[in-house]
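Ticket opened by: R.M.
Priority: normal
Category: complex prediction / small molecule

The reporter submitted a protein together with benzoyl coenzyme A and asked that the result be attached to this ticket for the collaborator who will pick it up next week. Submitted input follows.
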Amino acid sequence: MAETTNVDYSTKIPNNVGLMDDQRVLRALEQWHPGYIDWWMTMGPEGFQTSDVYLRTAISIDPKGWAKFDYVKMPEYRWGILLAPRQDDRRVNFGTHQGEQAWQEVPGEYRAMLRRLIVVQGDTEPASVEQQRHLGKTAPSLYDMRNLFQVNVEEGRHLWAMVYLLQKYFGKDGREEAEGLLQRRSGDQDKPRMLGAFNEETPDWLSFFMFTFFTDRDGKMQLESLAQSGFDPLSRTCRFMLTEEAHHMFVGETGVGRAIERTCQAMKAAGIEDANDIAAVRKLGVIDLPTMQKKANLHFSLSLDLFGSEVSTNAANYYTSGVKGRFQETRIEDDHQLTKATYPVSKLIDGNIKMVDEPALTAINMRLRDDYVNDCAKGVQRWNKVIEKAGIEFRLKLPHVAFHRGIGEFANIQASPAGELLRDDDWLRQKDRWLPSKADGDFIAGLMARCWERGKFASWIAPPRVGIDNKPGDFEYVKVDRA
Ligand code: BYC
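Result attached by the on-call engineer:
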C-alpha cells in the first residue's frame, strides 16, 4: 500500500507509510516489537495491563475524524506509524539550503545531527511512561485514570514514530539506537534517560498534571521546531504527533484547573478567605494554593532546562543546516538565515541579570524558550480566572527564568522566584518556601487515595465539565480488575 491518509491494519504494525512494500523496515520493526512489548509490560502502567480501557486509537491522519474510541487492553493497543500527508513541492524553509526541495533521504553531512535529535526526542517518550507507571493505583477517578493511560499509550506511539525513522533512514546505527531506547531507564544511576526532567520522579497526580502542562508543552515546542525540518519524514512525523500532544496538554491544564476549582469551592464553603492559611485549607482535604504554586515552580524550572543553553552553537548548527527550525518558522517575517540578526538574551553580567543582544543564530534556544514561556503564561492566566471567579485573593505566577535552574546561564547561581540573586545559605534557608518540601509531599501523598467508583472523584479534584468522547459522568472509562 502506498502512502495514504488511511491506516493499513493488515500488518502487525498499523501504518500509512506502505510498510507492506518495505520488507526490510517491516522486518526490523517486527524484530524490535517483542522488546517493546517486554518494556511495556515491565515499565508501563503497573497493575492495569489486563484492564479494559476506553482509549482512542488513530485510524487515519485526516484531522477530521482521525481517531476512534473503544475498550482496549493496553498491551493490545495498535501502536502505529503515522506520518502527516506529504505536501507537494515542500521546500527547506530556512538556513543555507533555503528554497531547495525538502529532503526525502538523510543528507550525509547531517546524518549525525539528525540521528542525535531523533534519539533525544525518542528517549523522552518511554521516559515519561516510566515516570508515570505507579500513578494508576492512586487515580482520583476512572476518568483521570483513562486520561493517564491515553497519554501513556500515545507516548508509546511517539517512541514508535522515532524508531521508525531510525530504522528506515539510519541503517545499522539506527537499529542500535532503537535498542538503546528500550535499555535506558528514567532515574537509573547507570543508564538514565538523556534529559534531566525525564529522570525526576512523578510522585503524585498533581505532579502528573503539572508535568503534562509544563513538560508536554516543551514537547509541543520541540515538535513544532522539528516539524519545520528540511528532512521531510521527520517533519511529517512530528506534525502528526502534535495532534496527539494537544490532548496531553489538555489533561494537564484541566487537571490543575480542576484541583484549583475544588480548593476554591472548599475554601468558600468553609468560609476561609486567606489562601495562605495552609493548615486550615489542608484540613478540608484539598490542596492549598501555595503548594500548587510550589509544584508549578518546580515543573516550570525543570522544563526550562529542556531548552538547552540560551546561547548554543548546537542550536545554531541545527538551524543553519535546515534540520531544526524556530516555532512557526514559516510565519516569521525575516530572511530565515539570521546571519546578521540579533536576539535579546537574559544573562548574568557582573552578578546581575541583564538582557544582552546576541547573534540570533546562537540564540535559537532562547527564542524558543521565550515562545514557551508566553504559552505557559496564557495557561496560568486561565487558572487564575478560576481563582478570581471564586473571589479569592491569590494568583499563581510563573517564577523568574533564573529560578532553580540546572542548565544554561543560571545553572551555577541561586535566585528567588522573583529573580533576586541569593547566596547559597540564603537559598538553602528559603528553598522550602518555593519548592515542594518533604512535608508538602507527605501531605499530598496522604490525599492520593484511589477513587475508582463510577462517576466519583477524590476529595481534592472537581469533576470535568464534559466526558471523553461525550460520555456521561458515570461512564466506566476503565474496567478495573478489583482482585
Ligand atoms: N538535560 O547546546 P546545548 C517531549 C545537553 S519533550 C541533559 O545547551 P542544545 C515530551 C545537550 O544534549 C521534548 N542534557 O543545547 C514531553 C548537549 O549535549 P551534547 C524532547 C542536556 O543541544 C513530555 C549539551 O547539553 N525533544 O517530547 O542546543 C512527555 C549542550 O547543549 C539538557 C527535544 O528535546 C538537559 N535538560 O539543545 C513526553 C528535541 N539540555 O550534544 C515527551 C530534540 C541540554 O554536547 N532535542 N543538554 O552531548 C534538541 O533539540 C536538543 O537536544 C535540546 C538541547 C533542545 C534538548
